[in-house]
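Good morning C.,

I know you're traveling, so I'll keep this short. The sequence:
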Amino acid sequence: MLIEQLINGLTLGSIYVIVALGYTLVFGVLNVVNMGHGEIFMFGAFMGVVVTNILGWPLYIAFVVAIVVTGILGYFLETFALRPLRGKEGVSHLAPLISTIGVSIFLENVAHHFFGSGNHPFRTSLSELKFVLGSTTVYYVQIIIFVIAILLMFGLTFWLSKTKAGKALRASAENLAVASLLGVNTKRTITQTVIIASAMGGIAGILVGIAFNSVNPQMGLSFGLKGLAIIILGGLGNVRGAMVGGLILGMAETFIVAYGDSGYRDAVAFIAIIVILIVRPQGIFGTATTGRKG
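The tokens, ready to paste straight into the viewer:
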């Protein structure tokens, strides 16, 4: 029983990590919480339903389509909701946040219009494949979700630390003005970052659909808020914190359901926010003061 809960916790936590990494990338560069990320994630999940259930194409094509569609949505979000507000005098620091909330509401309504309300089944043959390990049943999809999350974590870490584009992103996150003076194309870096973050949301959406066998237009809000809880838990803008925070939340929710009252499952994320803000406002891996961009 314990091993089964650990596996379930790792699976759920891995999905949360991918969602949270998208938040972290955008916050790290723009110092903005992208409230539209959850709905972009939801569109990725629906692309899986369209490709696999309606069109009958293979699952790997669903991943490709989800990445492309959510990447495009990320591009439009940055171009029309964030860029016009950036660098403008007299614009409130809350304006980008409000703008992304508007995008969130718009995308949810679009999803309602095209896909309808309620749950939509996400059927794949992969969901039924399993093997028995002692007294524990392990589904192949759980292993695949965990492996994809690990690959994305290490791939993102490598990209940030070893590639020219990743170093440009880190420089932009440290100080946009200075990075621009040093020759970094900050406009391109910001757009690239939002697209990558959105594409990661698309991947997470497909994985959620596979894991839970259904998707709905409201799922973006729930997972989006949990992604926000995770980046606060781990430390705003901290990639390692997003990884650890996602796994902690996934484990906590799983054990609450297994050994407590499942009705409190969703409350765990928000209790975590309150506790962390009281005990350690900067998060597990955050710093008390940040030298943000000027």
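Safe travels,
E.
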